[in-house]
Write a structure and sequence with these properties.
single chain; alpha/beta; Aspartate Aminotransferase, domain 1; Aspartate Aminotransferase, domain 2; 2 domains; three-stranded antiparallel beta sheet; 13 helices; 43% helix; 13% strand
């Protein structure tokens, strides 16, 4: 799906990559904190600090970084956790894979929402396929089955609404647990691809149902810092110290614009942190010491002087504005149904027909790139994910790209 944005693919279509406006990127466009950049420079210029940053850190992460990450979550969101609940890894992507290996076995059922983050399916297949027990020697070929994934649809493509009926979604959730007893329920809030925040009532029901069934509720908080609602739901402050079946996944990629400076962490019950230490000893051995050291120093300083909150609030306002520009321009030029983002970097737009071939057509004729919704779930077969994240500092590009696409879609209707 993401190969659409590859420069080689763009050139094959006869397009100049410099003229392409992409709404396909799942990344942020804002700049990292200046003070964080200065801290990296300070470490590099200090011979002994740089030497220390090149050594092996403890597998769960250096203590000062673990404490700082827990402190940040309490400072910004009220999460009561400690160093003992934090395990640092190479990234949230790596941690999700290793976490699945810790929480579930190959024959366990796993519950995802429809739609949801596209990577989960592949991670589940790789992490929870029984590679030894499912090899077939017939004709020298091997058969690798999918992991046992169950989907709960929470998006109505007819109404074009996310969680249109929370009570119905809870009833369906109860039915799924009664029949399949999934070992893990994994979801993201704010959500990728819809840009919506999961309702408090549903999350309370999900936690209780998981507790009653001995299952784990895993919340992916990659976009926790990107929210546009006035009041956050209470579950943003839930802690694994309070709920022994709750695991939270975090990433530095989005809020601190550290996409390529890979740093992720989980906040989990202590027994899960201990199990993850064993797992990571055989997968990545340890996270990056340099990034942990810089992040620990930055968080300690920026929490103390409250510049962290100012930084997060400043960029939230700009992403909220980018979301507003996106929705208003879709309404003005495309005339397509869309969701109003509540957070993250995205909305989803209805093209009214199977979107995947139309995405290629739009790109070829306008130089505007969207991501087909089908990759996130069957409920979005007629939709596209529209990402304004990379364009947050250039809202005029958002308008230009959606105007190009809208004019093409309207000309198509007239034929």
């Amino acid at each position: 799906m993401m190969k659409l944005a590859d420069e080689r693919n763009i050139r094959k279509m006869g397009l100049d990559p410099r003229d392409v406006i992409s709404f396909g990127g799942g990344w942020v466009g804002h700049h990292a904190p200046d003070r964080l950049r200065e801290i990296y420079a300070d470490i590099c210029l200090d011979r002994e600090k740089f030497h220390r940053a090149g050594g092996y850190p403890p597998i769960p992460g250096i203590p000062e970084c673990r404490r700082a990450l827990a402190h940040m979550d309490e400072f910004l969101f009220g999460v009561k956790a400690s160093e003992a609940n934090i395990h640092v890894g190479a990234s949230s992507t790596e941690l999700t894979y290793d976490l699945l290996r810790v929480l579930a076995d190959p024959h366990d059922n796993i519950l995802l929402l429809d739609p949801t983050y596209v990577n989960y399916h592949g991670q589940l297949v790789l992490a929870l396929t029984d590679w030894t027990g499912n090899q077939s020697c017939n004709n020298g070929k091997s058969h690798v089955p999918d992991a046992r994934i169950i989907h709960l649809r929470v998006f109505d493509p007819v109404l074009w609404e996310y969680f249109p009926d929370v009570d119905h979604a809870i009833t369906e959730l109860e039915r799924i647990f009664k029949i399949y007893r999934p070992k893990v329920m994994m979801l993201a809030s704010p959500d990728n691809p819809t840009g919506q925040i999961i309702p408090q009532k549903f999350m309370e029901a999900a936690l209780e149902i998981c507790q009653n069934n001995g299952s784990y509720l895993v919340i992916d908080y990659a976009y926790k810092w990107q929210y546009f609602v006035e009041t956050l739901p209470d579950y943003f402050s839930w802690s694994p110290e309070e709920y022994e079946n709750l695991v939270l996944i975090y990433s530095a990629s989005k809020w601190s614009r550290a996409l390529g400076r890979r740093l992720g962490w989980i906040c989990a019950p202590r027994k899960i942190v201990e199990a993850m230490e064993t797992m990571l000893a055989y997968s990545i051995l340890c996270g990056d010491h340099f990034h942990q050291l810089a992040m620990a120093i930055y968080l300690e300083e920026s929490i103390a002087d409250r510049s962290l909150k100012a930084y997060v609030d400043m960029w939230n306002k700009r992403y909220k504005n980018a979301a507003k520009v996106t929705v208003e321009t879709i309404d003005e030029y495309c005339g397509c149904r869309r969701l109003v983002p509540q957070g993250a970097l995205y909305t989803v737009m209805d093209l009214g027909d199977t979107a995947e071939p139309l995405v290629h057509e739009i790109l070829k004729n306008t130089g505007v790139l969207f991501i087909p919704g089908i990759g996130f779930g069957k409920s979005l077969i007629n939709g596209v994910r529209v990402s304004y994240g990379p364009l947050v500092e250039t809202p005029e590009k958002i308008r230009e790209g959606l105007q190009r696409a809208g004019e093409y879609l309207n000309s198509r209707k007239k034929k």
